[in-house]
Each structure stands twice: as C-alpha cells, then as structure tokens.
Amino acid sequence: MDIFKKCYEWEEAKEAIRRGIYPYFRPLDGTEGTEARIDGHRVIMIGSNNYLGLTTHPKVKEAARKALEEFGPSCTGSRFLNGTLALHVELEARLAAFMHKESAIVFSTGMQTNLGAISALLGRNDVVCVDKEDHASIVDACRLGLGEMKRYVHGDLDQLDRILAKIEKDKGVLVVADGVFSMGGDIVDLPRLVEVCKRHGARLYIDDAHSLGILGKGRGTAAHFGLEKEVDITMGTFSKSFASLGGFVAGDADVIDWIKHYARSFIFSASLPAPNAAAALAALDVMETEPEHVERLWENSRFMLKGLRDLGFDTGATETPIIPVIVGEDERCFLFWKELLEAGLYTNPVIAPAVPEGMALLRTSYMATHTREQLEKALDIFAKVGKKLGIIGAAKQAKEAAAVR
C-alpha cells in the first residue's frame, strides 16, 4: 500500500474548486484592517481576529519598524541559546503585571504556546479534562502529553463534575477551557467552573486567545468575572487583539519556570522575532492607555448582533464580538459565503469538525475600527443575500419550530 494513496484519491477540495465554492487559502491583494482587496475588488473585512484594529495603529507599526531596523527580521535561535532578547524579557514582565500573575513566558506562536505548556504539565499519572469545543491546539497538546485526556460536552459542567469525582485522588488533574469559544462566541461559565475545580482539587488553565483585549477591560475572562486569583494559568495569543504573532502563558513563577524548561515547542523553536515582540509591547501600551478601543469594539458588536438577529439570522449563543451566522448544510454555507464575497463582504465559512455536523456557519467578527457606515452596508448585504438564498426564512422557521417543541 502506498502511503500517498489517500492523497492522490482525495477529491473533495478539487470538486469544490471546480464548482467555484472552495473558500480557503484565498490570497488577499492587500488589507487595511476593516477593508481588504481580493481578486482586485474591495471588500469589508468581517472575518478577522483584529478585534481592536491595532494592526493599523501608528504606535504598533512604528514599534515594529524600529525593532526591524535594530534587530533584523529573525533571532535565528532558540530562547535557550542565542534567541533571548531584552525585548522578550521586558514583554514577559509586562504581561505578568498586566495579567496580575507572578510570571509569564512568551512563545513564537499561539499554537506552540498550548502545545508546549499543556504537554509539559501532563505527566504519566495526570489527567486533563477539556471542553469538546476547546481549540484544536488544546486537544493536540493533550495528545502530546503523557497523561490521560477526558472530554466533556460543551459547557456541561455537571458532566465535568461527575468526571472529576471518578478520578483517583493520587492523580494530578488539569482542566482546560477556552475563555471565549472561537466559533460560537460564547463565554465560559467561569464562576461555576472555578467552583467545580476547587471541589475536586483540579488546577485550571484558561485559553484567553479570544478574550484578551475584549473582556475584563482587555484583561480577559478572569478579570471579567473578578476571578483572577482563582485561575491558575492563563494563555493568550498576540495574533488577535495584540496585532502581532506569538503567544504566552502567565501563572505562578515556579509553574512558568517548569514550562520554560520542559515545553518542547519553546525549547526547540526559534524565538519570537523582535518586530513581533515590539508590536505586542506597543499593543499592550495602547490597551493600557487607550480604553476607548475596547468601548468602540463593544458598540460595534452590539450593533451587528442586534442587526443580524432583527433580520432573522440564527446567531447562536454568542456574547462577544464573534458572531456566528448558523446556516446548517455545508454546501449551502459555501454558497452563502461566495455570494457575500461577490457582494463585497468577507466572512469565514466553518464546517465540521470545527463545528458539529449539520451546524455549518459563517464566522463573523468585528473591530473597534469598523465605521458605522461599513457595518450598515454589511447588514444590507446580509439582508439581500440571505433573502435571495432563503437563509433568513429558514432560520425564522427553525426558531418557530423549536419554540413549539
């Protein structure tokens, strides 16, 4: 058997390309934050994680330029060897203070952060429990670790409680959950999660990739609920609100020191380039000194959520600037995406396994820098295309049927 046989016989992507509904790896000709150019046409960007719009902030761009001139584009080595810069040390200290934790460690990407930190903590006698809608990096990290992984139904903390109750007392236990779930936009029930973990002596790791810059005046999920002291480790990325690339974890100094010496994705990767570190530092400065960006983000998000719901779209249980538009069938979702793009609106189609089967959706997300004119135009496009494809009517019928049941 040729190991490449499955590759040669796989036709799904090729068929979607032939039909003109393949949505992935579409190159952008340029991007200006709230708008982008694709295939020579301008589109309103509502498919980005640039929540605070800081990729175009003058302070962030200037910091990256200066670091590029001073340090060049790469550190060419691991943090263990020649790859640690004073910029990294400053960034880690600033992040620890921002998160109200003793220490922090910076990784080269968000994916590497979860892969390294979680797998480093999981020994052979340990158990990790994760929400079934946690990010793929968390699931992969648990598979890399030496411990046992258990998964609970999304948001079902009663099931988590039962799982934890059955774990032998001599085992170390870590619970990992997203603060904001990246597809549905819902927020974890952190008060209840903390209570369940405390009752069973489990440590708690919160992935705040989509919470930092959004919740808790920018400080994330724990700050949002006033539970910063109750979360043991917080993970964050720089590729969303921080307008850069990279990630970090923050927690007790001894725990961070362990991760620093045992996380393979940290030890065996080239360190975060200086321009990225400098951009993240500048973004942190902006978050701390210009709170109006967070306020505008929420104004825009509330406007779009109300607008989409008033039109009759199914937006699920979102509570954040991530607003899914649930379509159902994969092919219908791709057609909706294509029609919206051609009308001037950039969204992200998401299908299983990123969401449950039959729950294909368009993931939309909003920025502090979107203008009201852009958002009104987006709603107008949604209305026209949604009616044309019968998606608005179907969503209303589904809601009415659910209410009758």
Commentary on this structure:
This protein is an alpha/beta fold. It folds into 2 domains: 11-45 and 291-404, Alpha-Beta Complex (Aspartate Aminotransferase, domain 1), CATH 3.90.1150.10; 56-289, Type I PLP-dependent aspartate aminotransferase-like (Major domain) (Aspartate Aminotransferase, domain 2), CATH 3.40.640.10. The protein has 16 helices and 14 strands. It has helices at residues 5-9, 12-19, 58-71, 86-98, 110-121, 136-144, 157-165, 190-200, 221-225, 253-262, 264-267, 274-289, 292-311, 330-343, 372-388, 391-404, and strands at residues 30-31, 35-38, 41-45, 103-107, 126-131, 148-152, 172-178, 203-207, 233-237, 247-251, 322-328, 345-346, 348-350, 360-365. The strands form 3 sheets. Strands 4-10-9-8-7-5-6 form a 7-stranded mixed beta sheet, with helices on both faces. Strand 1 (30-31) and strand 2 form a beta hairpin. Helix 4 runs parallel beside helix 12. It is globular and about 60 Å long. The relative contact order is 0.15. The mean pLDDT is 94.
Write a brief structural summary:
The chain is 45% helix and 17% strand. With 405 residues, the protein is of the alpha/beta class. Strands 4-10-9-8-7-5-6 form a seven-stranded mixed beta sheet, with helices on both faces. It has a four-stranded mixed beta sheet with strand order 1-2-3-12.
Helix segment tally:
16
What is the total domain count? 2
What is the CATH topology assignment of the largest domain?
A: Aspartate Aminotransferase, domain 2
Give the uncertain stretches in residue-range form. none
- Based on CA atoms alone, the radius of gyration comes out at 22 Å
Shape: globular
CATH domain class of the largest domain: Alpha Beta
CATH architecture of the largest domain: 3-Layer(aba) Sandwich
Q: Strand order within the widest sheet?
A: 4-10-9-8-7-5-6
Mean pLDDT: 94
Would you list the SSEs in sequence order as H and E? HHEEEHHEHEHEHEHEHEEHHHHEHEEEHH
Strand content: 15-25%
The main sheet comes to:
7 strands, mixed
Number of strands: 14
Span between N and C termini?
51 Å
Percent helix among the residues?
40-55%
Derived from helix and strand composition plus strand pairing, the structural class reads: alpha/beta
CATH superfamily of the largest domain: Type I PLP-dependent aspartate aminotransferase-like (Major domain)
